[in-house]
Each structure stands twice: as structure tokens, then as C-alpha cells.
Amino acid sequence: MNEKQRFNAVLDGERPDRTPWYADMLYYYHYLTQTKQLRPEWEGEAGYFAMCRDLGCGAMYYCCHPFKTHQGGDVEYSARCDGDTIYSQYKTPIGTLTSRQEYSWASYSYGITKHYVETIEDLRVMCYIYENMRYEADFSQYERLDAMIGGGGVLFNVPPICVSAVQKLTTRWSGVENMVNIYMDDEDGFDEAIERIQASEGAVYDMVCECGGRYVEFCENLSSEVAGRSFFEKYNMPYYKKLNGKLHKAGKKTGIHIDGTLSPCLALLPECGFDLAESVTPAPVGDIALDKLRETVGDGFIIMGGLPGALFSARYSEEFFDGYLKELAKISKPGEKFIVGSSDQIPPDAVISRMQKVREMVDNNT
Questions:
Q1: What SS3 class is residue 320?
Q2: Which of the listed CATH numbers 3.40.50.620, 3.40.50.300, 3.30.70.660, 3.20.20.210 matches domain 3-72+132-160+201-364?
């Protein structure tokens, strides 16, 4: 079986010949590109898939949207780059939102230093932007990349990032502090905004249902200590249930990206209607021990992850990594509803030879 077939076998409740092994290599790939260490044969989209194959893992590929977006309502978006800083702006008839991102050469990533949404008035401008967004079905990216990846991996067919309006706010638009302050100052206004944003994206899910591929991922960057149980149960859970029901009727399997702390949200995901939790990050990086993951989600739920990307860093010794793999092998044999995956990304300072160690572990763990 190839990696795609193994992934699909787990989705179907069947026993693959060996446990699938997938890694998100995009962060490491970006580092190689930025430092001009990328091999010529790894350049471009096909090169990324080749890199995953050469390193012995299945390729997982996010951001494959089955639609194009068009901004209406006299909304003007602009962005400019000044050195390591990106300044972005949405100008609308009811107000203007601005954001600032700074690039860190220590981490090879951008961080938001000013969020778009800081007040309830800003949140209403955000609602206007979403309500005037128009969507056009476009399956060409999915079809092109699916042919390119072949049996070497799985495309994650994704709706908007993030799906839940609360997750949009915490991870991108407002940050946690601004969001909580808005909620505390005007709970009714906050509730109204959440409903408006979620109602604005209904047409997208018809396009997701019609697109090829069996698996749909909610790219939420979910972390329990940020989401919180009360916010999750009030805002996220009902919306997830509704969308998962729609996607299941269209024959899709669904998963959610939970790459932070796990308790209590991980235990709530089966009730939300998901088939799979992806990027599950156990201790020592997350807050639930590796051998407690199955107990947390129950027997019928698929776990994808279990191997914190941070463990590939040279900060962890080879002995620690080897010992961790032995424990991971105990809970991830074929037929255990487990897909071994990096949680979340392989970091720039990875000891890349450890990729092959994982390959050998899954190949021998039959």
C-alpha cells in the first residue's frame, strides 16, 4: 500500500499494512529556502512532494481551497512590505482596519504585532468585510495538486481558515486579549458578530461538498488553553456539529487541526462530529500523556499526530527521541485508528536523520 491508501484505510476503519506516517514539512522547507539550502530537485510544488518522499514520510498539504474569493461592497485591501514588516489595510465604507506583521529571523516566521480588530466597532467592520465576500467554485488547484501528489500523500481539502469565527479572531484578526475584552464589554454585540460571520460563509461548504477528495480539514490551530471550554462549547461546538453533518451527508470524512494544549477540547471533538483529530500534540509539548490519548477520545475516533515536531530539534537528545518512538510504537500499531504525524511542523533546527527513524519504526511495527 502507498501512503494515501494507508490513510484512506484508516478513515474506513480498515487495517493498513502498516501505520501511515505523515509529516508537515512546510516550515522546514521555508527554512531551507530562506537559507538557500534547498536542493534543486526539491524546488517548487512537485519538489516539496519529492522532499517528503525522499525523507520517508507521507506528504500532507494544507491550503487547498476549492474556491476563489472576490471582495465586494467597496472594500479595498492593500498591503506593503517595508523591510521585515508587512503593513495591511482593509478600507470599507464603515471604517478601516489595519494590521502589522514582523518577520523574525530567529524563528523564520512572521508574528502579528498589531491586530486588525481591537474594539467592537472594528469587529463590525470585520463583519462587513465577510458579508461582502463573494465565492466562486474552483476545483482546478485541488485537481492539479492531487494528480501531482499521487499516492505519496493526501491533500487537505480546506474551507476558510479558520472555520469558527472565534478561531478567526483568536488566531488572526484580534488575538486573545482583544477578543476577550470585546466580549466582556459587549457580549450581545459579540454574539451578533459571531453569527453574522458564520452565516456569511454558508455557500463555501456547498463548494467543499462538491469538490473531489474524501477528507476535509478544519484548519483551526486549536489550543485548549486559548479556546477555553466555555467559549468552545458556546460558539465552536454547535457550528462544528452543523457543518460536519452537512459534509458527512456529502460523503466526506472530517478532521480538525488541534496543535496546542489538548485538555479539555480534545475530549469534546467526537461529540462535534469529527472523524479525526489532526496534529495531536501530547506531552512533553502538550498537556496529555502519550499513553492517555486513546482514553481521552475513545475507541472509535482517529488520532493523527502523536509525535511533537519539537522532538526533532537538536534540543532533545537522540536517546530521548529513541525512547519516545518506542512508547509511540506501543499505541500506534496498524488497526489502532492511529496515523503517526508530526505535531505540528518539523522545525528549522531539525535533526533530519530522525525522519528515517520514524519510517523504520512504522515499517517494523506491524
A1: helix
A2: 3.20.20.210
Closest CA to 290 of 248, 246, 326, 337: 326
Residue entry with cell 509539548: 285
Q: From CA 236, how far away is CA 194, in angstroms rounded?
A: 10
How many angstroms separate the CA atoms of 19 and 9, rounded? 10
Give the pLDDT of residue 64.
82
Torsion angle defined by CA atoms of residues 344, 349, 355 and 357, in that order, rounded to the nearest 10 degrees: -120
Give the model confidence (pLDDT) of 45-93 as tens digits.
999 999 999 999 999 988 689 999 999 999 999 999 999 999 999 999 9
Alpha carbon distance 268, 277 (integer Å) = 11
In the chain, what are the domain boundaries? 3-72+132-160+201-364
CA 103 to each of CA 26, 112, 346, 352: distance values in angstroms, whole numbers, following the listed order: 17, 9, 19, 24
E strands of the chain, at which residues?
Answer: 21-24, 58-64, 67-71, 76-82, 85-92, 95-104, 109-114, 133-137, 153-157, 215-218, 253-257, 276-280, 302-308, 338-345
Question: 11, 276 in Cβ contact below 8 A?
Answer: yes
CB 344 within 8 A of CB 304: no
